[in-house]
Design a protein that fits this description.
This protein is of the alpha+beta class. Helix content is about 30%, strand content about 30%.
């Protein structure tokens, strides 16, 4: 479904639906906005990939947010995808080894479809995002899908593209080799 431009999202918290919104939120890999304070934060945390997938998705699920969608069934499904090398996490840690931020999503070829992120310390999820963008830049034509643009994501450089443009970029991205870090 991801390779065709769809992602799962509950409908009224009872049933799972497949969504392909237009416009679509994407983060151009050359468009990430890294502020001076975020540059300082990059030095504050250690970043890893796929070291704590379960902890990241659970932390994302526990965030209080309106219309939260990460149910125990979603957690279980993405844990299976992670065990198969399809879903991945990027984690931010304190020097003392405490997980303080991260994100997870699905990788198909050169597509990374971001699902959710969390932080318990300043800029920790943004540090994970910066690291993800650096990994994606290793594959020319890679695509970072964030589903919808929000004011917060727009402040980081996320833009909206039409469904047609998204599907054109997606078709190229899914034919690329899998990201080296994954």
């Amino acid at each position: 479904a991801y390779a065709l431009g769809y992602f799962p999202m509950p409908i009224r918290r009872r049933r799972m639906g497949w969504w392909s919104p237009g416009p679509r939120g994407v983060l151009p890999l050359d468009g990430l906005r890294v502020t001076r304070s975020l540059r300082r934060s990059l030095r504050r945390y250690e970043v890893t990939v796929d070291r704590a997938f379960d902890e990241v998705i659970r932390a994302c699920a526990e965030l209080p947010r309106p219309h939260g969608w990460i149910s125990s069934e979603i957690v279980d499904a993405y844990r299976v995808l992670a065990s198969r090398g399809i879903a991945h996490s990027v984690e931010a840690w304190t020097p003392e080894g405490q997980l303080v931020g991260g994100l997870y999503g699905v990788n198909v070829g050169g597509l990374f479809a971001g699902e959710s992120m969390f932080h318990t310390a300043v800029d920790a999820s943004k540090v994970a995002l910066v690291h993800l963008v650096e990994l994606l830049r290793e594959v020319p034509g890679a695509l970072l899908d964030v589903q919808w643009s929000t004011p917060h994501l727009a402040s980081l450089g996320v833009v909206e593209v039409s469904r047609e443009e998204y599907l054109r970029r997606l078709a190229v991205a899914v034919e690329l080799p899998t990201l080296p870090a994954f």
